[in-house]
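Structure ticket #2291
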Amino acid sequence: MVLKMELLNTYTLEIKKSKFVALYYQIDDVNDVKNILEDLKKEHKKAKHFPYAYKIDQNIKKSDDKEPSNTAGSPILNIIEKNNLNHVLVIVIRYFGGIKLGAGGLIRAYSNAAREVVKLI
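Resolution: structure written out below.
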């Protein structure tokens, strides 16, 4: 079965002036991740962080993208795994609103954004 890279849904969450834009992609190739991230960074120039997680069969990866360790990529990956998803990439773009959320706040924000975008599928 050959899948193409496809954006299936988006969800936006705002917490203390920070905006979290969750994007759910169906992907077939690890190389798609790099291309998608490059395109998103051009499109969302004012965004500060682009954490993500993906699973393509046995290829699993997460990135906090300069957020504190395990506050962004891990919560996103947890949502992918809890929902038994495969051939999926979830990116949550953060526009920093000037108010620090703390580790717990970040984990909740990234987890909630990822959960909601997955629910929409």
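Closing remark: The two ends are 20 Å apart (CA to CA).
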